[in-house]
Amino acid sequence: MRRKAGLVLLAFAVFFTALSPMLRWYAFPRLAKVPANQYQDMVLEAEDATLLDYSTLKARKVSKVTIVQTLKGNVEASERIERTVDRDVVVWDGLSYVQGPDGEMVSRIPERYIFDAHTQEPVHAGGEMVDGDPVRREGIEFKWPFLTEKRSYEYFDAQTRTSAPIHYRGTEDFRGVEVYYFEQTIPWTKVPYPKRMPVDGVTPETLAGTGTTRWYTTVRKFWIEPLTGAPVYGEEIHREELRGGTLLGERDKVTAFAGHVKMREDYIDHTVDLVKSHRTLVLLMTSYLPWGFLALGLLLLSLSLWLEARGRHPEDPAPTGATEPEPANA
C-alpha cells in the first residue's frame, strides 16, 4: 500500500516539477497579450505654456494647454489582419487632441498603430498612419513589451514619423511601484503641419506656399512598470517653432508651442492602480505559480521517497522467549 502511494506521489511530483518551467517559458509568452478591444484615455497638461495665436502670428503666454490622448482597439480591423498574418494582432486607433485655455482646438492628430499582441512589435499589414500620412513604424509606441529589460528600445515619434532610441536611465520607486525610467531626445527636426489647423481657411498647403516651415524638438520621459510594460507616468518638454518664409515678415522664427507636458494628477492615480492589478497577474504567471509548483513538486518527491524508505524496512523480530516447534520423530 505504501509503495502504491509513493508511486502516485512520485507521478504528481514529476508533473508539478515539469509544469513549473512550462508555465513560465511556454505558457506565459502565449497567454500574455494586449486585448484587442482595449480602450484607454489620458489627459496631460502644460501649465504656463507658450502658444501661437494664428490670427496675429504672435506667441503669447497662456495658463494651460490640455492634451487629450485616446487609444481605442479596433476589433474588426485586427480580426481582418489576423486572417492574413496568422498571429494575434492589435489595432489601436489613436487621437491626440490639443486645446488651449479657452477650450478651442489647437491641433487634432489621428493615428493607427498595428502591433503584435504578445511582443508589441509593429505589424506592417497596411493601414498604419499618422494624421492621414502612411507610415512604417519601427520599434514600439505607447507600450513597452512584457518583462521590459534595462536597455534602449527604438521608439516611434509621431511628429517626425521616424523612430529613435529611447534609453534606460535607471530604476526608481514611483508611488510604491518599482519602475524603469526611460528618456528620449528628439533634436530640432522639420515636421509637417497638422492637417487640421486652428484657424478656418488656413491649410497646410497655404502655409507651405509661404515658405514658412514647422520645426519641433522634445525630451520624452516615461516611467515604465517592467513586468507589464505599461507606462505609469510620462512627461514631455515640448517645443515647436515656425521658421522663415513670408508669413513671419522680418522675423526668422516664432514659437508655436512651448511647455512642460505632464499627466494630470487624477489620471496618475488611476493608472498606478490599474498597473498594480495587472502586475499581480503577470507575477502569478512568471513567479508565484512556477515557484509554487516547483516547491510542491520537491515536497511531493521527498514524501514519495520517505514512503518508499518506510516500505523497505525489515519485519520486526519475533518476541523473546517464543518456543520453536520440535522436530517430528520418525
Residue stretches low in confidence (pLDDT < 50, at least 5 long) are: none
Give the number of helices. Answer: 4
Oligomer: single chain
Strand order of the largest sheet: 6-5-4-3-2-1-12-11-10-9-8-7
Please report the total strand number as a whole number.
12
Helix vs. strand class: alpha+beta
Structure commentary:
The structure is a single chain. With 330 residues, the protein is α+β, with helices and mostly antiparallel strands. It has two domains: 2-22 and 285-311; 32-263. 28% of the residues lie in helices and 39% in strands. A twelve-stranded antiparallel beta sheet has the order 6-5-4-3-2-1-12-11-10-9-8-7. Strand 10 and strand 11 form a beta hairpin. The two termini are 44 Å apart.
Helices and strands, with pairings:
Layout: H1 2-31, E1 39-53, E2 58-73, H2 75-85, E3 89-99, E4 105-116, E5 129-130, E6 133-134, E7 153-157, E8 162-174, E9 177-191, H3 204-209, E10 213-225, E11 230-243, E12 253-263, H4 265-311
Antiparallel strand pairs: 1-2, 1-12, 2-3, 3-4, 4-5, 5-6, 7-8, 8-9, 9-10, 10-11, 11-12
Helix pairs in contact: 1-4
Features:
single chain, 330 residues, alpha+beta, 2 domains, 12-stranded antiparallel sheet, 4 helices, 12 strands, elongated
Summarize this structure briefly.
This protein is of the alpha+beta class and about 325 residues long. The protein is about 30% helix and about 40% strand. A hairpin with a 4-residue loop joins strand 1 and strand 2.
